[in-house]
Amino acid sequence: MRVLDQTDRLIRRLRPAVLDDLGLVEAVRTTGENSLVDSGISFHFEVHEGEETRLSRDLEVAVYRVFQEAMTNVLRHANAKSVRVELDIGLDLLRASVEDDGSGMSFSSNEHATDRPRWGLVGMRERIFQLNGSINFGPSDSGGVRIEFEVPLRPKEP
Predict the structure, then answer these.
(1) Which of 83, 90, 62 is nearest to 142 (CA)?
(2) What is the domain class of 21-152 according to CATH?
(3) What are phi and psi of 85, to 5 degrees?
(4) What is the maximum span of the chain, computed from C-alpha positions, in angstroms?
(5) Closest by alpha carbon to 142, among 80, 95, 86, 88?
(6) What is the pLDDT of residues 14-49, one digit of tens each?
(7) Which helix (H) or strand (E) holds 120?
(8) What b/e readout covers 92-119, taking b as 16+ CB neighbours within 10 angstroms?
(9) Are 43 and 81 in contact (CB under 8 A)?
(10) How confident is the model at residue 99 (pLDDT cuts 50, 70, 90)?
(11) What is the pLDDT of residue 113?
(12) Which end of the chain, N or C, is less surrounded by CB atoms within 10 Å?
C-alpha cells in the first residue's frame, strides 16, 4: 500500500490535478491563495484572458510550474509581505509576471564559481526556453524580485 501511495504522490507532482480540473488560471490562483495567503503573505492576482483560456497540456504544465517555483521561492527566501501575479493570455502570446516586495537577491552576472547554483531559477528558465519563450529576473520597484516571461501560443511559421 505504501508503494501505491508514493506512486500516486509522484504522479500528482508530474501533472497537478488542479490543472486538469480548473485550468491554468484557476490553478495559479488556487496555488497562490493556498500557499501564500495561508503563510500570511498578501496575494494579488490579475488576469487578462483572450478567447482561448485552455492551452495545450504541455504549455499549461510548464507555465504552472514556473509560477509554482516563483511562489515557493517567495516562501523560502523573500521575507515578503505581498506578491503580485499578472497573467495575460492573448491570441498569440502569453505574458506573465510575479513580483514580490521581499528582501530581493543579487542579479550580478559575475557570480563566483563556488556559489551554489540557483536550481529553481535554472528550472524556470529551461521550462520557458523549451516553449520558445523568454524570461527575465530582476529587481522589483519595491526592492524584491520581479520575474517576467512570455511564451508564444502559436508555432512560428517557417
Answers:
(1) 83
(2) alpha beta
(3) -120, 130
(4) 51
(5) 80
(6) 567 788 888 899 999 999 999 998 899 999 999 997
(7) helix 119-130
(8) eebebbbbbbbebbeeeeeeeeeeeeee
(9) no
(10) very high
(11) 46
(12) C
The domain segmentation of the chain, as residue ranges, is 21-152
Q: Which helix (H) or strand (E) holds 135?
A: strand 134-139
Contacts of 45 (CB under 8 A, 6+ apart): 28, 29, 32, 84, 85, 86, 87
Rounded CA-CA distance 137/59 in Å is 20
CA nearest neighbour of 58 among 137, 152, 134, 131 = 131
Side chain identity at residue 137, one-letter code: F
Helix, strand, coil proportions of the chain in percent (round to 5)? 45, 25, 30
Reported as a single tens digit per residue, the pLDDT across 42-87 is 999 999 976 556 788 889 999 999 999 999 999 999 999 999 999 9
Q: Would the pTM of this model clear 0.90, i.e. be above it?
A: no
Count Cα neighbours of 41 within 13 Å in the Cβ-side half-sphere.
Answer: 29
Query: For cell 500557499, what's the residue?
Result: 35
